[in-house]
Amino acid sequence: MTQTQSRPSLAVIGGGVIGRICALAAADAGWDVHVYDAGPAIRAANVAGGMLGSLGEGHPGEEALLTLSAESTALWPGWIQRLGDPSIVTATDSLFVATTAADGDYLSQLARFVWSGQIGADRLTALTAREARARENALSSRVRGGYLARGEGAIDNHLLLRGLRNALADAGVQWHRMQIDAVSEVSADQVLVAAGMGTPALLPDVPVEPAKGEILRLAGNPTSIPPPRTVIRARVDGRNLYLVPRADGVVVGATQYEPASSHDRAPQAGGVADLLADAFEVMPGLRTYDFAEAAAGVRPCSADGLPVIERVDDRTLVATGHGRNGIVLAPVTASRVLDLLGG
Ligand SMILES: Cc1cc2nc3c(=O)[nH]c(=O)nc-3n(C[C@H](O)[C@H](O)[C@H](O)COP(=O)(O)OP(=O)(O)OC[C@H]3O[C@@H](n4cnc5c(N)ncnc54)[C@H](O)[C@@H]3O)c2cc1C
Q: Which atom of ligand 1 is nearest to the CA of 43?
């Protein structure tokens, strides 16, 4: 695996969303890049909802995450242009709605946090139940008011991964389908470890905790209502639910189990049942959709909720710990990694 080019070489271990976007940024910056990837079975990005959530992701105490998410979300349009496929974007706004008074209080607290800060306050607007239903007329009559978050959209994770893979091939990046068991196995000038939950096995000093999550995919059919146009983020009897539009249906997510095993990727019956029940509570017309898939993945989480993007030694960098926000934070991660590589 020795690479002897005149350009500086970079080996990226892990070909999830983080590995791919960093590899492409480096290739665009002139690096000779090789990606080593163990395959889709352990890739969280394959099951992600694809929300570009920032305002809905930063809660009191998570100001730094909100700032980073907002910075990254602003970089996404440039990346979509780079990939040349606008259909990767499936929504541009999010609608936050509640079903009970307590759920409404929870959302109000989130809105107050956003309005009290510098980030995105002008993008969040309170809506009555009638205004919310005027935007998404398939919302159930149980839905109370909520908030519109402009610019907080979603992307199709499968189209994104394919688009990044095609762009890598076009940029001359070599893809190796193999598991790497030690950083010393790759002999590039620089090595980026972006292996999600596989990172601690390669870099034991980088702790990453697993948080299992399930999602469902529902597919529209000729008799069903159209998918929502916005991302619907609902609080249903104390549980969080999201409905993320796809061209042909909707992704329903997501559960979160902590502590979790880093190897458990089997969707549980109870999680699937809760997601379906909550989805029908918020949008009853989804009952007529075809059930396409139930899937589970393991989010690689850091202790403080912020991604770990840093230099480990003269030759090794790491980018991991993106938790529930790896798709949102991918562009800002690529920028930080390029900075660490020195451009
Ligand atoms: C149910 C669910 C819903 C989610 N929804 C969203 C969402 O709406 N928005 C959002 O922003 N984020 C979401 N996420 C989080 C997001 O999926 C993750 O943060 C993101 O995928 C992390 O990217 P990654 O590239 O670090 O890891 P991964 O996507 O897990 O990719 C890691 C890659 O490394 C490879 N690998 C591992 N070990 C090795 C090794 N030793 N050698 C070679 N290759 C190796 C794997 O094969 C894999 O391809 C969700 C996650 C889950 C589980």
A: 30
Ligand 1 centroid–CA 322 distance in Å is 8
- Would you say the pTM of this structure is higher than 0.90? yes
Residue 4 has pLDDT above 80, yes or no: no
- Distance, CA 239 to ligand 1 centroid (Å)? 23
What pLDDT sits at residue 53? 85
Question: Which residues does 37 contact at the CB level (< 8 Å), separation at least 6?
Answer: 14, 15, 16, 19, 175, 176, 177, 178
- Tens-place pLDDT, residues 192-233: 999 999 999 999 999 899 999 999 999 999 999 999 999 999
Least confident piece of the model among 19-28, 62-71, 90-99, 197-206 = 62-71
Residue 117 has a pLDDT of 86
CB of 320 within 6 A of ligand 1: the answer is yes
How remote is the C-alpha of 231 from its chain's centroid?
A: 13
Cα torsion 319, 324, 325, 330 to 10°: value is 40
- Of 3.30.565.10, 3.40.50.620, 3.50.50.60, 3.40.50.10810, the CATH number of 1-50+156-207+303-343 is 3.50.50.60
Confirm or reject: Cβ of 120 under 6 Å from ligand 1. no
* DSSP classification of residue 225: P
Strand pairing report for 316-320 and 190-193: parallel
Nearest Cα residue to 43 out of 186, 219, 218, 177: 177
